[in-house]
Design brief:
Elements (H helix, E strand, L loop, with lengths): L5 H10 L3 H11 L4 E9 L5 E6 L6 E2 L2 E3 L5 H13 L1 E14 L4 E13 L7 E7 L10 H11 L2
Parallel strand pairs: 1-6
Antiparallel strand pairs: 1-4, 2-3, 2-7, 5-6
Helix pairs in contact: 1-2
């Protein structure tokens, strides 16, 4: 589909009477990417929630995961609950980024931890709450910068 001229695709879309076929044409003609949902969450003391991801070389970082067929906020709440047992409140979206390897859009939200008890899982071995600039060893500089950029305004 991506090899067809765009004008032909527009013509086909405009003159095709079947909605299902139109949607198929649009879907096949577009590039694909993943959507990740990530969150910068704080506790009552204002400390930042970090997770120890067992599969990363630099294991510490903010919570997140891949969206399924759901609203972004619902996906993030699901990921955090599945991976930690913690319940979160999402205040809003702070930033959207495009990244490669894999091609993806990262939606970064802010919010608060409001309940739950941490339970380790196959992806997350432990959590910590830390103050800004008191990062655990093994936290990527890129995530440190992202947190500072979003929380220090």
């Amino acid at each position: 589909m991506n090899m067809l001229p765009r004008d032909l695709l527009v013509f086909l879309y405009k003159h095709t009477p079947f909605v299902g076929l139109k949607n198929w044409i649009v879907y096949r003609a577009q590039h694909k990417f993943l959507v990740a949902v990530l969150g910068i969450f704080t506790n009552e003391a204002g400390q930042i929630l970090l997770l120890n991801h067992v599969y990363r070389k630099e294991p510490w970082g903010i919570p997140g995961g891949w969206m399924e067929l759901e609203k972004p906020e619902d996906g993030l709440k699901r990921e955090v609950l599945e991976e930690t047992g913690l319940e979160i409140q999402i205040d809003g979206i702070a930033k959207a980024l495009y990244n490669r390897n894999p091609n993806r859009v990262d939606l970064i939200f802010t919010g608060k931890v409001i309940g739950g008890t941490f339970k380790p899982c196959s992806e997350i071995s432990q959590i910590c709450f830390c103050n800004m600039n008191e990062w655990p060893a093994g936290m990527p500089v890129s995530q440190q910068k992202l947190i500072k950029e979003i929380l220090i305004k």
